[in-house]
Amino acid sequence: MITLTDIAADKLIDQVKDRKLRVLVKTTGCSGLAYHLEYADRIEVDDQSYLEKGVNIVVDAKSLAYVTGCEIDYKVKGLNEGFEFYNPKEKARCGCGESFTI
Fold first, then answer.
1. What pTM did the predictor assign?
2. Which of 3, 16, 73, 79 has its CA 20 to 30 A from that of 52?
3. If we measure between CA atoms, which residue out of 83, 50, 82 comes closest to residue 68?
4. For 48-79, how does the pLDDT look when each residue is reduced to its tens digit (9 = 90+)?
């Protein structure tokens, strides 16, 4: 299960509205894996779906193993802002911070 900080939940509620948010992990980057957020237009048979602080979250079975226990936060750093993932399963991140390994 993924948790959201209050700030992340507020941002997601504004952005997602009445749609579902898909959280997934894709193979990419120099460390191998990257987090992705997208709208869940279709729900597959093996998807897990639940409500977290007013946000409908959907995770596919493959990604679930990587993101269970993860927290999503929203940070503003100077001119940059966005969602950040805190995952106790991560072993390392690449230098740019875009990909990770477990």
1. 0.85
2. 79
3. 50
4. 999 999 999 999 999 998 899 999 999 998 88
